[in-house]
Amino acid sequence: MTRKLFIQIFVILLACILFACGSFSGGTSPNPKQFHLLSLSQNGQTFASHWVPPLQAGAPIDRDNVDQLAQVAQWGKGNILGLAIAPDNSVFVVGSSWGYAVYDLRDLEKEPQWVQFETPFYYESLYFSVDGNYILLQDRTGKQQARNFSDGQFAVDLRDIRWNKTNELSQSWGQLTVTSPDGSKRLESFTTHDEDFWDLESSIRKIYDPSTQQELFELPDETIQVTYSDRHEREGCDLVSFSMCGNVYSPSASHPYRAGFSGDSSTLAILYRPPNLYNTNRFSTLRVYSAEDGGLLNMVGSFDKSVQTFAYASSGNLLLVGYADGGIQLWDLNSGENTFSAWHFAAPLYNLEYSYDGKYLIAHRYGIVEVRLAKNGALLSRLYAHAFALSPTENLLALGFEDGSLKLLDLSSQQYIRTVEAHDDKIFALEFSPDGQMLVSSGRDCHVSSWDVDTGEFLHYFEQNTTDAYGEYSTASRIYIKSLNFIPENNQLIGYGSWARVASWNVNSGATQYLIEPDPLEYYQGMITLNPHFPEFFGVDLASQQFFVDNVAYNIETGENLGAYEPPTELEEGCAPFGPTSAGGELLFTKGFEAHVGQVCVLDANSLQLIRTLDVVPEKALESAGIGWLYMSPQGDQLVVHTWNGIIKVFQIAP
Hints:
Elements: E1 7-9, E2 17-18, E3 24-25, H1 32-35, E4 69-75, E5 82-85, E6 91-96, E7 99-104, E8 113-116, E9 125-129, E10 134-138, E11 144-148, E12 163-164, E13 168-169, E14 176-179, E15 186-193, E16 201-209, E17 214-218, E18 225-226, H2 228-231, E19 252-253, E20 255-261, E21 267-273, E22 285-290, E23 296-300, E24 307-312, E25 318-323, E26 328-332, E27 337-342, E28 349-354, E29 360-365, E30 368-373, E31 379-383, E32 387-390, E33 396-400, E34 405-410, E35 415-421, E36 427-432, E37 438-443, E38 448-452, E39 458-462, E40 466-468, E41 476-478, E42 481-487, E43 492-497, E44 502-506, E45 512-516, E46 523-524, E47 527-528, E48 538-541, E49 546-549, E50 552-555, E51 561-564, E52 587-591, E53 599-604, E54 610-615, H3 622-625, E55 627-632, E56 639-643, E57 648-653
Antiparallel strand pairs: 1-48, 2-3, 4-57, 5-6, 6-7, 7-8, 9-10, 9-12, 10-11, 13-20, 14-15, 15-16, 16-17, 18-19, 20-21, 21-22, 22-23, 24-25, 25-26, 26-27, 28-29, 29-30, 30-31, 32-33, 33-34, 34-35, 36-37, 37-38, 38-39, 40-41, 42-43, 43-44, 44-45, 46-47, 48-49, 49-50, 50-51, 52-53, 53-54, 55-56, ...
């Protein structure tokens, strides 16, 4: 196998969902020693110019100047972990693992001030001290950091600090106790099951008088339920549902995950999550109740716009809400109005791709595609789309939407130039042909179709393929195609889809050449699973005429199984064998692990000798900020690395 690898990577979006039987659809990278091929870790306002400083154009990275390669910028502030309103209602802060932004409540048009941490830290709650001089970052396990509010530096003496905790985080599923600031009411929540249908859960939330222990009332709204189909879409066209252990029709109850009373004790806010989804912020919704009688006053967020966290003001009735997509809202609960909104943070990042000329950088987050300038990371637009592809010959971006429509965006003008009603349902994947004249789309309607880029005219379908979905149960289903890859030398299109099936088609006719049905993983996160949560890597190596499904190689022309891939023996231990190369092909940049965890390995592309490493994430910060993947600009002058929490780090040749 040649060592100069040109790899086309498709990122498989692995939903971090732990469902009722305990099977986990993971978002973590596989162990490189086991898989050899590493997975790629899975739409406002912007800050002023000094948040995205312009960069000097760098020289192309090569063997002669690689020692000068250094981090020159960090774009983005990460995903929201916590927020709090100062005790005097003068400011509020919104924090990620990389630092926090300070907003002036007296002048909300003023640019937020960013305070950056010297080392990223993962936490789940953020609180002010009672005097407003300090902030506390705290996770569920008890790990915490106290910092000076003014500069973010660690606080030295914590003995006399009292913390203004305006909400509490549940320490066990569905069980939470919170007392109002005036001490007149106490919320207690717990989970119960229906006597006739034991698998039907309910959330019981009662309000007590702490002094007499008398129950005052029970919150009257029904338990929010999340069904299996909410969190798992069908895996194939001909299946109504799919579940490994019969729980497909059993809903999961959403329980209080975080709760708090307003500063004046007049309202109660509860953030709900299904208990088996505590590892993800999807399906999180916030409800606000009257503390007098439990009447429902407001509902914030939805399954399509989930709430990450919230905080009350310690006085009055202000409610600050942070969303999973990085947006924030400030609510005046007396008037029931949203008085301020901003979008300075972001959701975790799945994938990055440069435009053909390197001018634009496209970032893909959950349901959101961002268009940024590659020279400084400036955000041009956020687009609610589920799939994208970049033309290899012009600055044209194809976007696929939930309703099955397909749109072409001129990146230079940021205007749509064409809309095609391509599918009857959600678009999964898009891909331009190497000459930029054809665009192929796949959708949840099970069609894979080709389109003329210049006219938007339909060209032809690609043949549908059917597989045995349930193995021994012999239930046939047409497969969804989740990624598409042109093989130009072979007049060939390869698609990866449901149950790790791989289909090869003739580009001109759309006829199927072969269908590969790889063996499923016997175990996934310790559980035997029928649900197809694999592969974690799909790649194409044009030089050797092979493609890979996890660590198994296949012949591109025939689909023949060539066996498990073994990395070269001379490869530096702790360095992956795959990644982008320099423009001249002499350097290979790969993701480090074990001894090089949190680093990028810079290798000689021929000998695989380690030339140097680039420090990206400190080892103690890997829990929240590990490396996702790395990308090289078309001109070879810029290397970008994204981390799990949405940060983009930029490396260039520095003087």
